[in-house]
Specification:
The structure is a single chain. With 466 residues, the chain is α/β, with parallel strands linked by helices. 30% of the residues lie in helices and 24% in strands. It has helices at 2-12, 25-44, 48-61, 182-186, 190-193, 216-229, 264-278, 309-320, 327-336, 387-399, 421-425, 450-465; strands spanning 65-66, 74-79, 83-88, 98-104, 109-120, 123-131, 144-151, 157-162, 201-204, 239-245, 250-252, 258-261, 286-292, 338-342, 345-346, 368-371, 375-376, 404-406, 416-417, 430-435, 437-438, 446-449. Strands 1-2-3-13-4-14-20-16-18 form a nine-stranded mixed β-sheet, with helices on both faces. The longest helix has 20 residues, at 25-44. The protein starts with a helix and ends with a helix.
Length: 466
């Protein structure tokens, strides 16, 4: 009877085990090496603009050229320096559709306000407006850096990148000492203890030498900025300066099996999908990997997933194939296309297991996560992939020995969230969410498993080749 039970369980029940248990010594070494490259990427790419610059630079090294109908079969298409697409022309007719992976390269952060610089208590400070969903208290008492651009009055662009190099000055938001915080913070709800308007960066304390002037520290900081960058106060109005953690990505744990760092939601999917398309030679179907902006605030604007950038990319592939990119042709291609929405899921946190329904929650180290639906409050704001398409992806992963699991974004009534899949599928493209699980998602220091990172790369590669 025991043997029969064992045989029946093996045949009928799905057995999940850590990805590490599947690897040979050689494969384990490959997984760890892949993680090293990603760790370095996370440490230098802190904004969507920097992600685009990195992608363009490395895509060119791998034979991608700027889009032109007269050029080679590998090209990239820029969208306002804040989103980008890579494409490879496949053997099949364009009417067979395109294999698409879409990830986002923005991350929760603080943005400087249009008039950020002020002086109070004889300190220079910078006002910010938070972007996306990092808990406000997590921004305090950590080193911060500034990344972005300033457009001067004459139209000249100035690039700002200061605070990550240990030789640079850093910035910080000073928290209130516990001795004085009982009424001001400790008796309030966690979400109310730190007010958004108090997320102000320390920016200087030297007073300008003229003791008859007001706002001497502010004037001193403006003098430094003018000497270094040639800017004046009004130039902040036409600037995009992002405040991010000045913390390098690190290996986590004695076994170094995990990676901690800022911005893994969702640059982990950007990195893996970039590496996946770079491994593709001449695919059967044309492939398209898109990196979009603004997902953390609803995929809005000209560079978000709600824009027409996907359509522009499809039209570009159609034109390269020598076909007319008419409305009917574009619709035919979109309806024949298939997509993975590359985005992360929540891994079970040992300290907060009650917010997840364990049989449908993702685990760290168990592979890439296939997420049929996201949303909140009864699947509101989700794509909810069809059973047919989920079955197709499941067969594809099993055939190619991709280690995968399923996941949800918390218990039914607990919370939830959305991804770009909702907007990609609106074009008629079969879409399902697929990406690694994270611990500490939407924090200044998120954590992933190197095994999950590598299995996401494998999943994206076999999908683009399918």
């Amino acid at each position: 009877m025991k043997e029969k039970t064992k045989t029946l369980k093996k045949r009928l029940m799905r057995e999940l085990k850590p990805a590490w248990d599947h690897y040979t010594d050689k494969e384990r070494k490959r997984v760890l090496e892949f993680g090293n490259g990603y760790r370095d990427f996370l440490s230098i790419v802190k904004t969507e603009r920097e992600a685009v610059e990195w992608i363009v630079s490395n895509a060119r090294k791998n034979g991608f050229e700027k889009f032109s109908k007269k050029r080679g079969k590998k090209f990239y298409k820029l969208n306002r320096d804040k989103s980008i697409a890579l494409a490879i022309i496949g053997r099949n007719p364009i009417s067979k559709g395109v294999r698409v992976i879409v990830s986002h390269i923005d991350a929760p952060r603080l943005d400087l306000k249009p008039n950020p610089l002020y002086e109070d208590a004889e300190l220079a400070l910078l006002r910010t407006h938070y972007y996306g969903g990092i808990k406000k208290y997590q921004w305090t008492s950590i080193p911060l850096s500034l990344h972005g651009i300033i457009i001067k009055g004459d139209g000249k662009k100035i690039t700002i990148n200061i605070g990550d190099n240990l030789k640079d000055p850093a910035f910080t938001i000073a928290d209130l000492l516990p001795h004085l915080s009982r009424k001001e913070q400790s008796q309030k709800k966690l979400s109310e203890a730190i007010e958004g308007e108090k997320l102000t960066l320390l920016a200087g304390s030297f007073p300008f030498p003229d003791d008859k002037e007001k706002e001497r520290v502010k004037l001193s900081v403006l003098e430094i900025l003018n000497n270094r960058y040639g800017i004046k106060e009004e130039d902040f109005i036409s600037a995009e300066i992002e405040v991010v953690p000045a913390i390098p990505a690190r290996d986590i744990g004695w076994d170094m099996s995990l990676i901690g760092g800022y911005g893994q939601d969702d640059r982990i999917c950007a990195y893996t999908s970039f590496n996946a398309i770079n491994k593709i030679k001449t695919p059967e179907n044309s492939t398209l990997v898109i990196f979009v902006d603004k997902e953390e605030i609803g995929s809005v604007g000209a560079t978000g997933a709600r824009s027409q950038f996907l359509i522009d990319c499809i039209r570009g592939i159609i034109s390269w194939k020598g076909k007319s990119s008419s409305f009917d042709m574009v619709r035919e291609v979109l309806n024949s296309s298939k997509a993975l929405s590359g985005d992360v899921n929540a891994a079970i946190n040992p300290n907060y297991q009650n917010v997840l329904e364990k049989t449908n929650a993702a685990k760290t180290g168990y592979g890439v996560v296939l997420t049929k639906y996201t949303g909140a409050g009864g699947k509101y704001g989700t794509n909810d992939a069809s059973a047919e398409f989920v079955g197709e992806i499941r067969r594809l992963f099993n055939k190619n020995k991709v280690i995968w699991q399923t996941g949800e974004l918390g218990k039914v009534d607990e919370g939830g969230g959305g991804t770009v899949s909702e907007y990609i599928s609106q074009h008629g493209v079969e879409t399902v969410d697929c990406g690694p699980p994270l611990l500490g998602m939407h924090s200044p220091f998120e954590v992933c498993s190197k095994a999950d990172l590598y299995e996401t790369f494998k999943a994206y590669k076999v999908f683009l080749q399918s």
